[in-house]
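[job 4471] stage=fold_predict status=RUNNING
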Amino acid sequence: MKLCPSLPRRSRMMAIAAAIGVLLTLIFPEHHGMWAQDLTDQTGPAALAGKGRKPMVQVSPNDVLVPESIAVTGSGFDGGTKGTITLSPGGAKLGVFKTDRRGKVTKTVRVPEVKTGSYTVTVKAGKRSASAKVTIGNPPGGPVALGVFTPGLPADLSRLDSFEKSIGRTVPIVMWFQAWSGGNQTLNIAQVAAIADRGAMPMITWEPFDPAGGTVQPIYALDNLCSVPGALVASPFDPYIDDWATKLAGYGKPVLLRFAHEMTGNWYSWSEQVNGNQPGDYVQAWNCLRARFAAKGATNVQWVWSPNVDYPGGTPYAQVFPGDGAVNWIAIDGYNWGSARPDHGWRSFAQLFGPSIGIANAMSTRPIMIGETASVEQGGNKAAWITDALMRQIPLVYPQVRALVWFNMAKEADWRISSSKAAKEAFTAAVANPYWNASLATASHGWPAGATSRVRNERRSRTHREEGP
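[job 4471] inference complete, writing structure tokens
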């Protein structure tokens, strides 16, 4: 015997489901209505898939930078229904879709060029709609270059491989340290070339001291490091300097040389506050090195002047700045020590770097990078610190920062991005954004005309100074 032979197969199944629902309701009256709804969801027409449900929408991520894409997911809509995704205010149409038979939608859409602010993403299918909030940042500058220091470089490139694998991308700046003594002072051009062959810019932090010698090392006094070509009294380090200059000139490709970094502090022997050094000695040594490199034809070297973040008692930037004509980049170093050093405390990126960026901006037109930075876990939320620095502060507040180098090492504290799962996830998510896809060549010209002077004016009135490490 056939049940309702004149009805289409789908309608017959609906009738059967309804009959079963009535029977179950008679047996279990306390569950009245539930059986028919569940059976309808399983066997009914797609147009009824969302009936009785409140539409819901989620946006991921919900804090984005232009030109990032977002994933929009929704449920509780009518099945098999065409719809639209819009952004308000403004009413920009982000995409169209068709829900599946269960009334669900999944769509990846591109964030348009809009002003920084809070927006609403609305999904509408038929007569049903739902919305979700999203915060959109539109950086006034172009993309920024990402760099890393990790122990073992440049000799052991497997360390770099591991870091890049952990964040799911390559880095365009690879930094390492070489002192003038201690067994690692010889420049190995093959290692420099190996970094460049990966598509990265080599950046060498060149330290004129013996790492085991402390701050008092008379042989490494600033006025003894270098003599200008043709000087009557030669420096004992002239041959060493000339060897580096000759090798780099022969190499011919761009190399960043970060000589005697953090000179504004008092923890290195090249500070003008220690080791018998005097005001003016640092600039004299800097210019002497540049003269010897020029004499060897090493014009491919880009000179990186790298002070520490400004702090009470630090050497004023102006005292040790060689001038725009002798500098290609300004690279500011600073760390969030949190409670790992009680005399410092937890500091946001803005608190740590803001005043120093303002000082650098006021005295120079050179592009700025963050030469070294990292955060501890102790005393705050490292993951949130990373997200704020990389997704809010640098893109939206400090567009003159064109590159950043992360100090990925457990040293005085665990500065690594892997110090916690949350920190690693935050870093990986941030640097996956297209904003962090610049090469160093493009990063130095990535912000609009007027941005530098605008930031100068904003920062000149700020007098807050940050403590050093």
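[job 4471] summary: Residues 1-5, 30-47, 445-469 have pLDDT under 50 and may be disordered.
[job 4471] exit 0
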